[in-house]
Amino acid sequence: MRAWTRVRNAFTRSAQITSPEDLLAASRDRRMGGGGVHVTPDTAMRHSAVWACLRLRADLVSMMPVDVYRKVNGIQVEVAKPPVLVMPGGARVGIKEWMYSSQVDLDRSGNVFGIITERSGVIGPDGRGLPARIDLVALSDVTVRATGSEITKYVIGGTEYDPWDVWHEKQYTVAGMPLGLSPVAYAAWTIEESLNAQQFARDWFAGGAVPMAELKNTAKTIDKPAAKIAKDEFRAAVSTGDLFVHGNDWEYKPIQAVASQSAFIEARQFGLSDIARYFGCPGDMIDAAVAGSSITYASMTQRNLQFLIMHLGPAVGRREDAFTRNLTPGPRFVKLNTDALLRMDPEARARTIASQITSRTLTPSEARAIDDRPPLTEEQYAEFDRLFGARAATPTTAATGVPS
Predict the structure, then answer these.
(1) Selection from 146-160, 218-232, 249-263, 351-365 with the highest mean pLDDT
(2) In angstroms, rounded to a whole number, what is the distance separating the alpha carbons of residues 307 and 285?
(3) What's the rounded Cα separation, in Å, for the pair 60 and 383?
(4) Is the separation of the CB atoms in 320 and 336 below 8 Å?
(5) How far is 238 from 355, CA to CA, in rounded Å?
(6) Quick one: CA dihedral 305, 307, 308, 309, positive or negative?
(7) Residue 102: which of 341, 274, 327 has the closest Cα?
(8) DSSP letter (8 states) at residue 308
């Protein structure tokens, strides 16, 4: 609670310069001294579970097609996308790469920043041209100057920018805070524990944590100069695979890892599931499921639907709102197409489409368009007639000849 109070007070002071890195440092009490790993958004990515969570979420979001719609007579009609939703970073940075990079920053720090370097001729709600190009910047290059909950200046790479010249999306927000909160900050202790365990394991098996072996003289006491000579001679012999010749007064004994290895591995496994919870990823989706827990789903589609609703969907919705509000003129709105995530297996998909055709909610031509196929031609219809019988003629009234 004290750490949270310091963060809140940092933003309530007028003209206080605060960065996402400062937010991370203030969100927890750092232990001083020691050789442990200090967790930041960058060092956290050395942990496999953190990397897997960020990669999974960013991969899925970046592969969702970005569509723009407007309502015409109450019907949702797709319209052309503005260039910023096709190549937002210019000729070399397309929407998929831009979405991936920005989603990683949102998920690991709660914020993503970019400099608006070009604007279109379409005037937005703030009276300025809508952004036409947004160059994302590294989190470590950004600090903000805020008065209360309002950001008055961004400082990026030493240069000051007004708020309307900076693209800033937030995630994990709290009332009164101008920045989104960082999951890494709140997961820091868990991540730090896991990273320190990894470092200890490397040191242990590399001989850095404890001596790898002992060389003991059983006949007499060895002083420091003699011990150094014996150690150097032994090391020189064994390092090249040569033989070490000695009398019956020397004893060599490797030191084994007598610590509870199973407990060590178990602790690391539970650390993985904790990290997965912080980042909103089911443990089984990053291969971090804890032994003894079992969740069974009827199909992969059901599994993905649960993940979309409970974990990824809210983040997608917030991004849609940000794009709609700041990148498209009204009354257009942006949607990220989640159908790719909910793609069914071929058999289930065929049954669903057939059911929609039978219930008259989908035409055969529309169904073929879903598979990127053109409508059936008359020649194809004739072939179907030969295989499955002629189509029934549409009944007409005798008086008018108009279909009944």
Answers:
(1) 146-160
(2) 9
(3) 41
(4) yes
(5) 74
(6) positive
(7) 327
(8) I
Residue 29 has pLDDT above 50, yes or no: no
From residue 107, give the alpha-carbon distance in Å to each of 150, 183, 389: 22, 7, 57
DSSP 8-state symbol, 284: G
What is the reported pTM? Answer: 0.68
C-alpha 87/C-alpha 95 separation (Å) is: 5
The encoded tokens of residue 227 equal 């011990």
- Across 113-127, b (16+ Cβ under 10 Å) vs e yields bbbbeebbeeebeee
Q: What tokens were used for 117?
A: 């370097």
Task: Report the phi/psi class of residue 376: left, alpha or beta, with left for phi > 0 and alpha for psi in -120 to 50.
Answer: beta
- Measuring CA to CA, how many Å separate 282 from each of 102, 309, 311? 21, 12, 8
Q: Which amino acid is at 158?
A: G
Q: Name residue 21's amino acid.
A: E
Per the CB < 8 A criterion, the answer to whether 78 and 119 are in contact is no
Mean pLDDT across the chain: 77
| CA separation for the pair 359, 356 (Å, rounded) | 5
Query: What's phi and psi for 155, nearest 5 deg?
Result: -115, 115
133-to-39, 84, 117, 173 alpha-carbon distances in Å: 33, 6, 6, 26
The candidate with the shortest Cα–Cα distance to 88, out of 179, 167, 169, 170, is 167
pLDDT digits (tens, 9 = 90+) for 355-387: 888 998 889 888 888 788 898 898 988 888 888
DSSP 238-266: HHTT------TTEEEEEPP--S-HHHHHH
- What span, in angstroms and rounded, lies between the C-alpha atoms of 57 and 308? 10
Domain boundaries of the chain, sorted by first residue: 2-185, 213-254, 344-388
- For residue 2, pLDDT beyond 50: no
Using the 8-state DSSP alphabet, how is residue 342 labeled?
Answer: T
Residues 288, 276: contact at Cβ < 8 Å? yes
Which amino acid, one-letter code, is at 206?
A
Give the residue from 199, 204, 188 showing the smallest Cα distance to 271: 188
- Per-residue pLDDT tens over the stretch 149-175: 899 999 999 999 999 999 999 998 888
Residues of the chain with pLDDT > 90: what percent? 31
pLDDT for 349 equals 76
Amino acid letter for position 237:
A
